[in-house]
Amino acid sequence: MSHAPTDPNQKLNIAVLTVSDTRTEENDTSGNYLVEALKADGHNLAAKAIVIDDKYLLRAQVSAWIADPEIQVILTTGGTGFAGRDSTPEALAPLFDKHIDGFGEIFRAVSYEEIGSSTIQSRALAGLANRTLIACLPGSTGACKTGWSKLLKEQLTASHKPCNFVGYLSK
Question: How many other C-beta atoms lie within 10 A of the C-beta of residue 136?
Fold first, then answer.
């Protein structure tokens, strides 16, 4: 299948998952930022959840969303560092049909301009599973702003040239 979308104005159904043992809907600044950013760009919020940093609970939630034909993109925030319970990469990478190596590489490159060598502790990653894009961002709101504005916004825009992910996401 071609990756060229038929509609250059196509908007996506996006789920947002916050990975945290401490965040609530009231103090989830990173998840809430992603919700506001995707809506500001005309996309639809398909679902939002907060799940504790447990790889089996993360896999269960993300697997359910991957199987949902209405969800085209899953954005996660949190659990990508090196703290004892950080397990987002270990939980979600096995679900990927294809890994998008460049996502983590570019995220760390642009993040370096903002936070210097501390970006080396980011294990941001992305992949495709069942024609669903899964992008895993660090838990800080600043990292979510960087990930959205420098990578995701363009790649989730059907008219972005020379290529974008939109055409790969039809189930």
Answer: 30
Range of the domain at 87: 13-168
Q: Name the nearest CA neighbour of 50 among 19, 22, 76.
A: 19
* Domain at 129, CATH number: 3.40.980.10
Q: How far apart are CA 153 and CA 160, in angstroms?
A: 9
In residues, how long is the chain? 171
In a domain, 8, yes or no: no
Count of the separate structural domains present in the chain: 1
C-alpha span between 46 and 13 (Å, rounded):
5
CA–chain centroid gap for 159, Å, is: 20
Report yes or no on 86 lying in a domain. yes
Alpha-carbon distance of 79 to 92, in angstroms, equals 11
Mind listing the pLDDT tens digit for each residue in 18-31?
Answer: 999 999 999 999 99
pTM beyond 0.85: yes
Whether 160 contacts 10, CB under 8 Å: no
